[in-house]
Amino acid sequence: MLNIKRVADLARALLIQRELARHERWGPVDLARHQERRVTALVKHAVNNSAFYRQHYEGHRTEGAIDIKSLPVTNKKLLMDNFDDVVTDQRLKLVDLQEHLQTIKEDAYYLGEYRAIATTGTSGLRGIFVFNRREWSTILANTLRWNQYIGVVPRLPKRTRITSIGADAPMHVTHRIPQSADVGLFHVQHLEATAPIAELTDALNAFQPDVILPYPSMAAILAVEQIEGRLNIRPSVVSTHSEVLTQDMFTKIETAWGIQPFNHYGLTEEPHIGTDCSGHEGIHIFEDLTFIEIVDDNNQPVPDGTPGHKYLLTNLYNYTQPLIRYEVTDMISRSPRLCSCGRVFGLIEGIGGRSEDILYLNSSDGRSVPVPPLFFEICIEAFPEVAEFRTVHQPDLIRLSIVPKDSTNLGELEANLTDRLRTGLNSLGAVAPAIAIEFIDELERQPAKMGKIKLVGAAPQDTDIERT
Fold it and tell me: What is this structure's pTM?
């Protein structure tokens, strides 16, 4: 049975998407004026309604037209540490939202009007982000825009069959968006990225999707299944998301299905930074909803074509939990040219985030079982006692470095997390190797290294790791 509020949210999204489509015809001056207006309105709203931003901007000019580059930066830790003062609705409390996310079912609203989503994030620090119904409709409108960029539009009477492969719970954005948008425009199948590969293959063979929307690491695994004959589908569109699409992954997808994959880029904080179009010349930044400053380690802008140490994200439509000059430690570069498609939006020509390492484990009968990096992130996200983490793996050892929250029972957390990993690996058909968990005060960060902290990766072959 359809939820009337969900239908209304998507109906609003369709109206917003029409407005966004008109922005595609803008020139540079139109876009610059729009961004200036939206930044000014957002900052003033934050100052008037958020205790955190009032204090954060004390001594800075917040009247008249706002020069955003004069304002101090924020980051996830700062906003999470001050969550109750950051949000502009004082009914929103971090402790209550954490409880809500641990028990959430399907596309549930919080307080009847908010959607909350969570992530451990690329730094390993858990973040919670909240959107009111109009803001969520804007996310859905951007989802529809993404679909249009990759050539996916509603059709009748035979609806387009879309398989979304993402997280296994509605607290994750890759689960929540397909769920929110599924009101009948498309025939949607949602599969969990942590399911056994054989199970995913069987489900895809039965569904025969026209479009698949997987993580790049998962797309690469499925491409091998197709090449080796266990998977037999003929999608006309493959669009990856949420991870770095490496050249090796791109080649496997192209070999398997004879099509170039589209590359979508987003975060939990802003699910749709942008996507490439049929020209495949770079990722169009949706600059009417997102303002991005690519900067060096001192928050100074870098020239187009030069990878930044990080970038500062300003979400132009989230007034509930304003993200203004919010630090994202992905290393990206902006193209000095525009796409030949004629759109005014700038292009990301390179993303230097972490390359996703797939762990291959043996099954009980000696087969090789691929385990995507997302498996570890989702397992660990189930434990709110974990503040930050890093996973390093070899075929015979998985080692976790955990920064626990205060007052956590470490023995109980270690036992439960080890059991969760073993059970999950067994469900994938893999034999779990040794698992070592260490508790530390903080993750070591390397300021001189560009890109993200590598949360999930293979240990160097000469690494001497203590086994337990």
Answer: 0.79
In which domain, by residue range, is 129 found? 1-354
**Which CATH number characterizes residue 25's domain?**
3.40.50.12780
* Residue 252 · residue 278 · CB < 8 Å: no
Number of structural domains the chain divides into:
2
* Structural domain contains residue 395: yes
Question: pLDDT digit string (tens) for 385-414?
Answer: 887 778 887 778 888 988 888 888 999 999
Tokens read off for 79: 């906003």
Residue 352: CB atoms within 10 A of its CB come to: 16
pLDDT of 286-334, one tens digit each? 999 999 999 998 999 999 998 888 899 999 999 999 999 999 988 889 9
Cite the beta strand spans of 62-186 per DSSP E.
114-119, 127-132, 161-166
- 215 in helix, strand or coil? coil
Q: Are residues 54 and 176 in the same domain?
A: yes
> Which residues on adjacent β-strands are paired with residue 436?
399
Q: Which residue has the tokens 């934050």?
A: 46
Cβ neighbours around 162 below 10 Å, total: 25
Where residue 363 sits, what CATH number does that domain have?
3.30.300.30
